[in-house]
Amino acid sequence: MAWTKYQLFLAGLMLTTGSLNTLSAKWADMFSAPGCSGTPKHAFSHPFVQAVGMFLGELSCLVVFHILLCHDRRKPEPTMVPGQSFNPLLFLPPALCDMLGTSIMYVALNMTSASSFQMLRGAVIIFTGLLSVAFLGRRLQPSQWIGILFTILGLVVVGLADFMSGHRNDSHKLSEVITGDLLIIMAQIIVAVQMVLEEKFVYKHNVHPLKAVGTEGFFGFFILSLLLIPMFYIHVGSFADNPRQVLEDALDAFCQIGHKPLILLALLGNTVSIAFFNFAGISVTKEISATTRMVLDSLRTVVIWVVSLALGWEVFHGLQILGFIILLLGTALYNGLHTPLMAKLPCCPGGQRAEEEEAPERERLLGGGKAANES
Questions:
Q1: For 121-145, how does the pLDDT look when each residue is reduced to its tens digit (9 = 90+)?
Q2: Distance CA 118, CA 11 (A)
Q3: Which segments carry the region annotation Disordered (predicted)?
Q4: Where are the domains positioned within the chain?
């Protein structure tokens, strides 16, 4: 079945904005500018400020939801289903996980390459699978266990590629690269907890996906914005890459933006892209399929890697290709992307079963909106 122009647009929008999200965050990290009170020129290293910008992008989805709802209600026959009323505090625990996981990942992005950052995020499959078995009582299929094993192998290969390239990378020390990679994997444990919490407490409510994303963005934006105040006074020594050596110096970030306005462009790119990426991802699941969404989410890793190489942000290493292929196989096996292909083979009749298996996944993604996307 051929895709319509609108479906092609949605797929392209998801791939483009998903790639821009990581690339714009990395671009901001690569700037250097003077800080406040004549502080000499130094790198823009403000992961928590960047995380606030990302949550602002998610919060904008709530604004878009209400605009679309108002527009729909003016029609003679409204078609938009706003969903049932719910207690917004249901979204507080997953929002806290999102806040912590995202902040850790932005810290890690300062230490490693954009492509490795995106590849290593595939580790979420391992922890989501294990936690869903432990706390949701889910039984994983043999192919899903094999997918987890492939993912572990792919992570080892990508980590090895980073270890080898770290010796000839001038922008990051080897110790920073290894620390960054470990932080990314650690963050995926928190993201997996977030997904399990969403599935256990949120998906059973009929919440519109834009409203779900926006509500989590609301909690994340306001809580993290308030936390920037105590972070300004918490000294962490050499761990922090800012002149005052505090956990986060938001004033220094604003001063650097004033000296180098291009940093603001990078931050706005991150904020706007996450908003459109969430919208596009939800729409792809609704208009095409959950499987297509997962494929596009994997393809953006290739886009990020190619653009990073073209811009000279990182050095080519053949092991990264091997690691990505193994991770892609792991993702395909875990998410059942192989089932529709097998169903087309004469020896593997099961097309109807494959469609039946995808239906719950489509409903799950449309019901919560956050499980298969994000930055």
A1: 888 888 988 888 888 788 888 988 9
A2: 19
A3: 352-375
A4: 8-34+43-368
